[in-house]
Amino acid sequence: MKDADGKDIDVAIKFTVEDVRRVLDLKDNNEDPVIVPKRLCKGLWMRMGYPGFVNDPAYTKSKLSKPYKFLVHSVIHALGHMKGVFDEFADYIMNIITYLILNRPYNISQVISNHMLDNIKGERFVQYPKFVQMLLDDQIPSLPKDEDDELKLEHMDNETLKRLDVYRGVEKGKEPKLRKMFAAIEKEDYQAPEDDKWRHENSGFDDETKKMEPFIPKKPRWWVKKDEKPKKRSQTA
Q1: Average pLDDT for residues 60-85, to the nearest whole number?
Q2: Residue 61: which residues within 8 A CB-CB, separation 6 or more?
Q3: Angle of CA points 96, 90, 76, to nearest 5°
Q4: CA–CA distance from 176 to each of 85, 132, 232 (Å)?
Q5: Residue 125: which region, alpha, beta or left (left: phi > 0; alpha: psi -120 to 50)?
Q6: What is the predicted pLDDT for the residue at 217?
């Protein structure tokens, strides 16, 4: 910005999780979880028809049937923090989609805020320029902008849908099979199962229990390992 004499001046900006929540109109709250049990998340993705191995370190949207592929694509573009990576996605994207499908609350505002702060500390590839601009506009409505610095948003169109309709490297007729809609995608008033379950008992189709048998719990940044056994204390003589 410039002062009364036309000189460039620095302006301090401070924002909190509450600012992110209000400006982006996310309607979550501080009591909503950020950490998700990994077994719950992986189990739901197996139910979505993910054909990969349950312990794969990274999941990709290109392995999902078209409706779920479109859902994941939309969430990555809207909330993903890595610029230019739209097939492989981070664990917190899996968390968000899991809780959206199960109609459970999730603290998206905190996740976005954490990644913004990590960007200041030098975490690689962390972006969110569109959200930063919204926060700046909220606090300094009169902030002058250079047209070359403005972020141009590209909306989905028919060309986007055509690209999503293609499975590169997959033989025709062997694309992921269409999966039936379930949970909150099927029913607007869906009630999530209790505890860390991703399906109700006798919910009716494609039991993924077999695919979950090799599951190995680990604890990266956005997971919680619920079935972790307490460490034994070493005894000294």
Answers
A1: 83
A2: 68, 69, 72, 73, 76, 86, 87, 89
A3: 60
A4: 21, 37, 45
A5: left
A6: 83
Of 169 and 126, more confident: 169
pTM of the predicted protein model? 0.82
Provide CB contacts within 8 A for 89, sequence distance 6+: 58, 59, 60, 61, 72, 76, 80
Cα gap 141→138, rounded to integer Å: 6
